[in-house]
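tool_log.txt
---
The assistant was asked to compare two proteins side by side. It first ran the structure predictor on the initial sequence, then on the second. Raw inputs and outputs are pasted verbatim so the downstream comparison step can read them without reformatting.
(1)
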Amino acid sequence: MKTTVKTMAAGILLTASVFAVNASEITKSIVNKIEVEDYELKIEAWMVDANTFTADKSEKPAGSVVDIAVANPDFSILVEAVSKAGLVEALSAAGPFTVFAPTNEAFNALFKKLGVTGIKDLTAEQLKPILTYHVVSGKVMSTDLSNTSVATLNGQKIKIDLSNGVKINDSKVVKADISGSNGVVHVIDSVLIPN
C-alpha cells in the first residue's frame, strides 16, 4: 500500500513537472509568437512609411501641358482658345515646352480691354499669335530663369524680370513649376500681347 501511495505521489509529481514544463514551453511559444508578430508588424509599419517617402516608379508621368490646362478649371478659357486656334495637337507633342498660362481672370480682363465678350468674338488667326507668344521651346523651371529676353514660338521675345518676384513682360508669375510629361506650366496673372 505504501509503495502504491509513493508510486501515485511520484506519478502526480512527474505529471505536475511535465505539465509545468509544457506550460513553460507553451508560455515561451506564445511569447515568442507575440514577439514575432510584433516584429512583423514593425516591419510592415516600416514598409508603409518607406512607401510614403519613395516614389512609385510604376506611376505614369503627369499629362502634357495641354492635359494640365484641361484638368484645371482656372484655365477653361485658355483651353477654349488653344482649341479654337488649332494648337492642341502641337502643344500635346513631345516638346518640351514652357507655357506661361494666363488664368480665366486674366482673359476676362483682356476681353474687357478689347471690348469683346469672350473667345467666340476672336478668330483663330487672332488667337494663334497671342497663344504662341506664351510658349517657349524647352522645359524652363523657375530655378532656370534669369533676367533676360527669350524667343517664343511666335518668333517675338518676352522679357523675364526677376527684380521683384518673377515677371514675364508686365505679367506676374503667380504659380510656377507645374511639371508635365512634355514641359512645364507657369501661371501668370495677365495675357501677354505680342507687338
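(2)
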Amino acid sequence: MKKIGITTESAADLSEELIKKYNIGIVNFKANLEKIKDIPGNIFNKMRIAEEKGIESVVKTSQPSIAQYLDLFKKKLEEFEEIVHISVSLKVSGAYNSAMQAKKFLGKQSEKIHILDSEKASGAQAFLALKAAEDIEKGLDLKEIIDNFNKRIKETFIIFMYDDPKWLKAGGRFPKIAQVGLQKMKDFNIGIVMREKGGVIKPMAIKKNVKNLADPLFDEFKKFTKDTKKKISIIISHADNIKEANDLKQKLETLENTKVLYISLMDIVLGAHAGPNTLVLNFIYE
C-alpha cells in the first residue's frame, strides 16, 4: 500500500493524462441539464444552441454529495495509508463542507483524511493538486506536503474574462442592478478582467474596445507578473473557446520564463455560470 494519495474535484480542470499519471481521485460536480440535455455537443454548445432556439438554457449545478466523497475516500483508502483532499474554494462552493461531513462517517479512518481548502478553482486548483502529487513522488512527508500547499496558495493565481453577462444573469449569482450595469458595458464593448483574491472573485481591470478575450488577459498578465524573475507555469481553461485559448497560448509563449502546461475545457460548475466562451488564465510561480 502506498503512503499518501491525492483527491480533488472536477472543478480543478485537470487533464485526463495527469489524473492518470498521478492517480488522482476525482469527485464530480452535479448538473441538471433539464431542457437542454438532448442537445448535442458539450455543455457550452448546448447552451448556445438552446438560446438560439429560444429554449431555456439555464444549467443548474450542485456540489458533490456526501455520499460521493465517502465512496471516493473509502476507495482510495484501499490504495493509500492517508489521503490529502484539495477542495475547491470554500467561498464559492459548499463542496468543502460535503467533504468534511463525509470524513466524519469514516470513524477511526477519518484521521487518515486531510481536507485542504485551495481557495481556488479551475486550473489554479489543479496546480495545487499537481504540486502536492509531485511532493509525494519526491518522498516528502505529510507535514511537508501541507506546509508547501499553504505556501503555494499565495503563489497561485486566476484571472479570467467572460464573454457575455447574460450568462451571469441566468446563473443568478449577481444582483439585478449589477446585471444591468454589466450589460450596458457589454453594449459599449467594455469588458472586465476578473481575478481571484482571498478565495473570492473580484474585478481586476476594466478594458475598453474589447474585441476578443485573449488580448486583455494577456495584457493584464504581463502587468501582474512584470516584476517577478520566477518561472511561471500556466494552465488555460476555456468554455468551448479553443481558438482564443490557442491565441492566448501563443502570446504567452513569447514571454520569457513562462510555460503553458496544457489547455482544458472548463468544468461545468464554473463554466455554466460564466457562460460559453469564457477564458481563464491560471498560473503559479515556480
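---
observation on (2): The CA atoms of residues 159 and 195 lie 4 Å apart. Residues 2-29+64-153 form a domain with the Rossmann fold fold (CATH 3.40.50.10440).
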